Amino acid sequence: MSEWVLILGGSTGHGAATAKRLAQDGYGIIAFHFDRGDAKKVALKTIAEVNEITKGRCHYFNTNAASEKAIDEYIPEIKKITKEKPLKLLLHSIAFGTTTNFFGEKPVTQRQMDMTIHVMGNALLYWTQKLHESELLGNGSRILGLTSEGNYLAMEGYGPVSVAKVAMEAIIRQIGWELGQFGITANAVQAGVTPTRALTKITDNWELWVENTKKRNPMRRTTTPEDIAGTISMLLKPDADFINCSIIYCDGGESRSGIL
């Protein structure tokens, strides 16, 4: 297979699992991450694994993928890598934003809100615009973003991220509506509570979240990054060509279960 996928946030969590799964499916992997310290050690391990699976058909860039400068700088590089062929997938999996409440001891600031909405929402639009202009999206290309139950439920410390994810869902819906005529589809995948590094940043009570989730999930477990990776793998198949402007749930029925 000569097709390539682009993952924004491909070093840990859902992004890393998806990179490994799609590498196993035969895709070349282009990914961005923005890691420092201990997180960089995890990223380097992921990169080594993906590089081995793809036999060198992977390119990871450690920079802020949400910046306009990075988009303009790396799109020509991506064109070289794919030999100007359209990408099969653009996946937004960046989990970087402010996790705090709107009120209380440390209420969210305008700067924090603007940054969170940009990085976790608007950046997907800007990437899609530039990729489309550069003819790096074509018939059969997929635009995917990751969302969560926190978009319609109020949660401790999740407010800014919730706003960003709701914005991303609206962006995805509009992208699919406007680009569907070219065979380009856009959808969101909603994961259940997943014990990843990102979850630990949302609340100090994340372990309690995990235990409560296991009780209320019909399948009595939490979502794994591999669950999400498998769903994304399926969505790249031709059978999914007509799925567009939608939210696909991969949570074991968690979002349809009452709080116990």
Give the SSE map:
Elements: E1 4-8, H1 13-24, E2 28-33, H2 37-54, E3 58-62, H3 68-82, E4 89-92, H4 110-133, E5 142-148, H5 159-179, E6 185-191, H6 197-202, H7 206-216, H8 225-235, E7 246-250
Parallel strand pairs: 1-2, 1-4, 2-3, 4-5, 5-6, 6-7
Helix pairs in contact: 1-2, 1-8, 3-4, 4-5
Question: Which key features would you list for this structure?
Answer:
single chain, 260 residues, alpha/beta, Rossmann fold, 7 strands, 45% helix, 15% strand
Give a verbal description of the structure:
This protein is 45% helix and 15% strand. By secondary structure, it is an alpha/beta fold. The protein has a single domain, classed as 3-Layer(aba) Sandwich (Rossmann fold). Strands 3-2-1-4-5-6-7 form a 7-stranded parallel sheet, sandwiched between helices. Helix 5 (159-179) links the parallel strand 5 (142-148) and strand 6 (185-191). The relative contact order is 0.14. The model has no long low-confidence stretch (mean pLDDT 93).
